[in-house]
Amino acid sequence: MGADAQHLVKQIAALGQKTGAAILSFYQRPDSYRIQQKSNHTPLTAADLAAHDILIRELPHVIDLPCLSEESDAAVHQNPPDDYWLIDPIDGTREFIENTGQFCIVIARIQQHRPTLGFIYAPISGDYWFALRGQGAYKTDAAGNTRRLHCRAAPSPLTIITARAHLGKRMRDYLTRNFGDYQHICRGSALKFCAIAEGDADLYPKLSPTTSQWDIAAGDILLHEAGGGLRLLGNHLAQYGKGDSINPPFLAYGAGFNETALQRHFASMQETLAASA
């Protein structure tokens, strides 16, 4: 990674750390959360808004681009420009409220409908993950040690990662049909993508359309640069800023999933969804 890219990442990391400190000033202080319910029935806290304000104000000082946030007015997401920041100030607000620690700050740069930069910062651990198109995926820990990331070749059995420890019947049926024996771990927010990029997990299947583009953009490029990927139902790449911001079902995966395997898994996913409709 060149000097310019390293400088860019340092600037974003400093902003992530500043935003993370603001978030942690609210953490485990429920009286400060001031929880609201958004129109999509997801929670919003004072910490989300504080993080949003910092990022919206300061990201354009890193690269002067429009900044679209989960907490922005819905109208600004309808016709985004060709080059912009896409952010989720707190990905995993429920995890924040429940004090699990499994929440993060998510920042992506979108150019021509695809992510070219991704950054994920975990305020609790102080670790962050980043990727730049054509320059690899990396993790920097709280001590400042940076290493390049590579998804592991798919072992047997696979390790499946999901948001919750309890798997519903539809997910259990899908996993059993496709993978037989498998290991299962759970992690909140975009940290699931980080686990795959680090080689701690192999597959994150999402069967319900309950995520948005700002939830997956940074993880998308992180996985692609680490040797894995993310495909939407139908086995195609996500196109950011086109159509609805809500994602259809998808698979995020590590190494070892070729086109034939992906086609097979998506066909099975379609069957599972049709059977439960």
UniProtKB/TrEMBL annotation:
Cofactor: Mg(2+)
Function, as annotated: Converts adenosine-3',5'-bisphosphate (PAP) to AMP.
CDD domains (alphabetical): CysQ
Binding site for Mg(2+) 1: E70, D88, I90, D91, D215
Membrane topology: Peripheral membrane protein
Annotated catalysed reactions: adenosine 3',5'-bisphosphate + H2O = AMP + phosphate
Record-given protein name: 3'(2'),5'-bisphosphate nucleotidase CysQ
Family of this protein: Belongs to the inositol monophosphatase superfamily. CysQ family.
GO terms under biological process: 3'-phosphoadenosine 5'-phosphosulfate metabolic process; phosphatidylinositol phosphate biosynthetic process; sulfate assimilation
Binding locations of Mg(2+) 2: D88, I90, D91, D215
Hydrolase keyword on record: yes
Compartment annotation: Cell inner membrane
UniProt entry tagged with the keyword Hydrolase: yes
Highest taxon in the source lineage: Bacteria
